[in-house]
Design a protein that fits this description.
The protein is of the alpha+beta class. Helices cover 28% and strands 23% of the residues. Keywords: Cytoplasm, Cytoplasmic vesicle, Endoplasmic reticulum, ER-Golgi transport, Membrane, Metal-binding, Protein transport, Transport, Zinc.
Length: 864
């Protein structure tokens, strides 16, 4: 791939801050406009991070961990905590410490270090040592083709799992089916009605897990769950080994089960949606894991193919009720070597007011799925109740230490907006695609279970704790985590995201997981008097987690920054500004406000803050826009805000609530570099007269003899200019004689056969290209290579990214060119088409261009 080299800005610490020099007072911090925030990727891999096989030393007062910023008295064997200045004695096994014999944690280059805590998460189940578990929840309300795609990917995923990973399987449609995998003679299925909310205790009772769940079923000696005890199966924890088995033991059983599994057979009336009880299915899966493996790292992998239309309290017809009661009178029956145990069918049909409604839409096809307009007008009758249900489900999963992963594939919405709270708070993954056969789903789903370099590094049971210097307060975190409500002197009064705590739970996290932490400064006069002996501030991030091998690790990252007196001079403050991080933080904060504050005008809020920032840090004469200049440390920030205003995070028009929720979830969990690409896509140009190079994200970058590669994170677009597309359609790249003869600075394209075959009205205009500016023309051996290079670069991007982006290959003036044009600055529109360069394009829009945006910004920033 033709890559543009870039330094690793996150370094060993994986921490980036909006301001790398901090103002001393709360008042000065408020004048900075951009909040004091840090973005951290807590378990991002780095070969320079050492792993120590012993426990860390903690301060006896503030519990922070000894680090390279601690002052050490080697004579007295004492270390002084940089956070609270407490003097701590070294334990006896540190007796040999000296200036020439330091432990690794005191080396200045090891600001991030990892400790091996031990294998505390062992959960022995019979003869198995459980490190992780995966329960697949498969939607059966799909057409045959989609259903086969989904089953095929589940089979492949099971084959990729570690041999000792525990696997369970739940399918759902009109009802929920829990499949028992540990019964060798025949398949067993426990069926739960999709209209009734089921508690964890009820699930345990119906599945026969635990003493309260023992049933007496005719035929032989009764074992756990009412069935004959299988030989060789231990009585202890046998409920686990009935429903969850190691992948190596149940792969054949699951593959056979999936081969026989059919789409939901419940009849669907004309003009109606299928009955799909997604909420009940996830609740049953959560209850199953909570009963079998509480506290063990486990994931619910949900494959959903449509919106939830079934839930507790839904009115059902009398005929259907009679059918269910008739089925419920049978304890079990055999059909096609399948043993079905019917649970939770019997019972009264309660009125809808007695249960939480889990559905997101009615079954009537004439009733459209809720839109942003419906949500704004409070015209989505199921939305709030569904969000409340998934909020309760999230609390249950967090208490159990389990993760919900959502893979939604459908042309219509499926309820991602409602399920967002459960996915985010458990640290789950989310992928949204059009079909289970689409490469976006297939490539992404495979990445989840792959090992080696392409592994996501899925980890479990994480906690994040933050220690701060005096006078620094923590407002909260935006990211996939849940507050542990640990109070302390560092907790701020103002809450942003998950706040009111100094510790957070992360049931699931991986190498790319990122959090944004917001800080405040206490209202004391000054955090550090000028000329004080210690002008530094310290932050420590403690991340405990279980890695894929089941080992518990503690990563300690301690960073320091300088206090500066911005009231005297803002020069030092300006030099510490990180434009990219600031833009991402503002995007995440804007998304949070749009979701949590009713009637929030995001565009106006962004504009006001940008004007305030430029007025504070710009150089100008009052009321003279032409005199306005912006320091180089801020020069790109207005451009980021311009693109953020136009992005899918702020402009929800033409996006469904599901799509908006999906975009925002990924914005909140990706690192700064990837999130910046979401806000301001990268654009690379490929042509005969130069190497691949970045170009402006502007319509003026389009050229007839260029190929453009747009990376907007969610999609990768290969755009062929008009001339390039014509040559490709004529097949020049397939001709052996279509080679370039390289002289010093000239490339000649020979295509005599095509020239002879072309009509006179379609003669080739450019047969000889003079490339006087090409520094290395030898890199371009053929037109075929020019076409192939952006494809290879696009595949590299797709191969390394999760979720896999959508690949769009289009031509200038083609219908799919809109994927590129929508992201470009509209410097040429139908209003000024006469200024368009030859071979370029125009955008039919009334949006202002970046130049007009800057002109208005300059005028407003210099106003008295």
């Amino acid at each position: 791939m033709s890559e543009i080299p870039s330094a690793d800005q996150e370094g060993i610490d994986s921490v980036r801050m909006t301001w790398n020099n901090w103002p001393r007072t709360k008042v000065e911090a408020s004048k900075c406009v951009i909040p004091l925030a840090a973005s951290i990727s807590p378990i991002r891999s780095n070969p320079e991070i050492p792993t120590l096989p012993y426990l860390p030393l903690r301060c006896k007062t503030c519990t922070s961990i000894m680090n390279c910023f601690a002052r050490v008295d080697f004579t007295a064997k004492i270390w002084i905590c940089p956070f609270c200045y407490q003097r701590n004695h070294f334990p006896p096994h540190y007796s040999m410490i000296s200036e020439t014999n330091l432990p690794a944690e005191l080396y200045s280059q090891y600001t991030t270090i990892e400790y091996t805590i031990g294998d505390k998460n062992q959960n022995p189940v019979g003869e198995f040592d459980v490190k992780s578990a995966f329960v697949f929840v498969l939607d059966t309300c799909m057409i045959e083709e989609e259903f086969e795609y989904a089953k095929s990917e589940v089979k492949r995923a099971i084959g990729l799992l570690p041999e000792n990973a525990m696997v369970g399987f739940v399918s759902f449609g009109t009802q929920v089916q829990v499949h028992e995998l540990g019964f060798s003679d025949m398949s067993k299925v426990y069926v739960f009605r999709g209209t009734k909310e089921i508690s964890k205790d009820q699930i345990m009772e119906q599945l026969g897990i635990g003493g309260a769940g023992r049933r007496n079923v005719p035929g032989g000696a009764v074992g756990v769950g009412g069935y004959q005890q299988q030989r060789g199966m231990p009585m202890q924890n046998s409920g686990v080994t009935r429903f969850l088995l190691p992948a190596s033991d149940c792969e054949f059983t699951l593959n056979s089960l999936l081969d026989e599994l059919q789409p939901d057979q419940w009849p669907v009336a004309p003009g109606s949606r299928a009955s799909r009880c997604t909420g009940v299915a996830l609740s049953v899966a959560a209850g199953l894991l909570g009963a079998c493996l509480p506290g063990t790292g486990a994931r619910i992998v949900a494959l959903v193919g449509g919106p939830c239309t079934e839930g507790p309290g839904t009115k059902i017809s009398g005929a259907r009720l009679e059918q269910e009661k008739h089925i419920g009178k049978m304890l079990f029956f055999k059909m096609k070597n399948l043993l079905v145990f019917v649970s939770s069918f019997l019972g009264d049909c309660e009125d809808s007011d007695h249960f939480e409604v889990l559905q997101i839409i009615s079954k009537d096809l004439s009733d459209p799925v809720r839109s942003h307009k419906d949500l704004d007008k409070d015209a989505a009758p199921y939305f709030k109740k569904a969000v409340k249900f998934y909020d309760n489900l999230a609390k249950q999963l967090v208490s159990q230490g389990h993760v919900l992963d959502l893979f939604a594939s459908a042309l219509d919405q499926v309820g991602v907006a409602e399920m967002k709270v459960a996915v985010e708070r458990t640290g789950g993954l989310v992928v949204l695609s059009e079909s289970f056969g689409h490469s976006v789903f297939k490539d992404s789903f495979k990445r989840v279970f792959e090992n080696g370099e392409q592994s996501l590094g899925l980890c479990f049971n994480g906690t994040l704790e933050i220690n701060c210097s005096k006078d620094i307060k923590i407002q909260g975190i935006i990211g996939h985590c849940t507050s542990l409500e640990k109070k302390g002197p560092s907790v701020a009064d103002t809450v942003i995201g998950e706040g009111n705590t100094t510790a957070w739970k992360m049931c699931g996290l991986d190498k790319s997981t990122c959090f944004t932490v917001f800080f405040d400064i206490s209202s004391s006069e000054k955090s550090n008097a000028p000329g004080s002996a210690n002008p530094q501030l310290y932050l420590q991030f403690l991340t405990s987690y279980q890695n894929p091998e089941g080992l518990t690790l503690l990563r300690v990252t301690t960073v320091t920054r300088r206090w500066v007196d911005s009231s005297v001079s803002s020069e030092e403050l300006v030099q510490g500004f990180d434009q990219e991080t600031a833009a991402v933080v503002m995007a995440r904060l804007t998304s949070l406000k749009m979701e949590s504050e009713e009637g929030f005008d995001a565009t106006r809020w962004l504009d006001r803050n940008l004007i305030r920032l430029c007025s504070k840090f710009g150089e100008y004469r009052k009321d003279d826009p032409s005199s306005f200049t912006l320091n180089s440390f801020f020069s790109f920030f207005p451009q980021f805000i311009f693109n953020l205003r136009r992005s899918q995070f702020v402009q929800v028009f033409n996006n469904s609530p599901d799509e908006t929720a999906y975009f925002r979830m990924l914005l909140n969990r990706e690192n700064i570099t990837n999130a910046a690409v979401m806000i301001q896509p990268s654009l690379i140009s490929y042509s005969f007269n130069s190497l691949p190079q970045p170009v402006l994200l502007d319509v003026a970058s389009i050229g007839a003899d260029r190929i453009l590669l747009l990376d907007s994170y969610f999609s990768v677009v290969i755009f062929h200019g008009m001339t390039i597309a014509q040559w490709r359609n004529l097949g020049y790249q397939n001709q052996p004689e279509h080679e370039k003869t390289l002289s010093d600075n000239v490339v000649i394209i020979y295509a005599p056969r095509f020239l002879a075959e072309l009509p006179s009205t379609k003669t080739l205009v450019l047969s000889i290209l003079s490339l006087t500016s090409a520094p290395q023309p030898s890199l371009w051996k053929a037109f075929a290579q020019l076409l192939q290079t952006p494809k290879e670069d696009a595949q590299t991007i797709i191969h390394e990214r999760f979720p896999a982006p959508r690949l769009v290959v289009c031509d200038q003036h083609g219908s799919q060119a809109r994927f590129l044009l929508a992201k470009l600055n509209p410097s040429a529109t139908y209003n000024n088409a006469n200024e368009m360069a030859a071979g370029s394009d125009i955008i039919f829009t009334d949006d202002v261009s970046l130049q007009v945006f800057f002109e208005h910004l300059q005028r407003l920033a210099v106003q008295s």
